[in-house]
Amino acid sequence: MPQLVDRTLCLLYRVLPAAHSQEQRQTADAFALWAGEWIDLMRHMGFVVEIPPDLQFAAASAKARRTGKRPAPYGPWARLSGCCDALYTFETDLWPRFAAIRDTVEFCPGDHSGCATALAVMWLLKGGPRVAGCIGGSALHGPDAGPALEEVALSLHAQGLDTGLTNLKKLPRATALLTRAGFDISRHKAVLGTDVFAVESGIHVDGIAKKPLLYEPYPPATVGLERHIVVGKHSGRVSVRLKARQMGLTLPREAEEHILEKVQQLAESQQCSLSDAQFLDLCHTCHPPESLSSARTDCCGLSGATASAEVGHA
Q1: Which GO MF terms are attached to this record (predicted)?
Q2: Computed over its alpha carbons, how large is the radius of gyration of the chain?
């Protein structure tokens, strides 16, 4: 079973200022507490955590602090890194050179060419036992950080391979911890972004309502997220109808086209999709609340017979 090694603490520890002043000592203490939370979370999900030697005792996990046990040493693995241009020569050059010693090599490809995740997945598919990287990958930590481990994990998961990882639905907690540490994580960041399962285009909404696997390699709940409809200039009548149902309303059929026109006009003028409050206000402006029926459906997940039947009659 492959092991995914998280280097996040080592990358952050490198830029931590030396504790020469009281303020710097307080910063180091705060980081140690943050590191303890990070270690607990990563291990709970099944990742191996690389801990800087100087932080071995200060950043012991909460369980270790309670029991008085010290963290286990990281281990004597040789790290193979810097292979950022090897995607097209992997089969002919990289793998043949290192296959014989793969059980002692920890692969950590750089991401200067944007292919670290692909290389890491190929390494594991070939039988390599370990890959090192970090949560967030180069988008957060720079190209030398290695592959984004969450992307490697979900790539393997999508192919039906057992990674030994559990509780990946706790990844939003990792996003929250990284945000607390000062990282600005895009809402559209693969796997971690809060809006990666937001759909606006009418054809996408239609397709996902009928068969989610057309657009999604794994269910949103796998990583602790939910699918949700966003209405904007690319929306269609199906999007408007299902968004209304998601918010507990049933629009009269004759109102859908009118509301869609208003949605597209507002989205165009503000150059972004509408918020839930804006959409609800439009619905109530076009049709007073007493003319709208309340509805309780599973359209937030775009699943089940109700959503499919609605789409089928669009």
Answers
A1: transferase activity
A2: 24
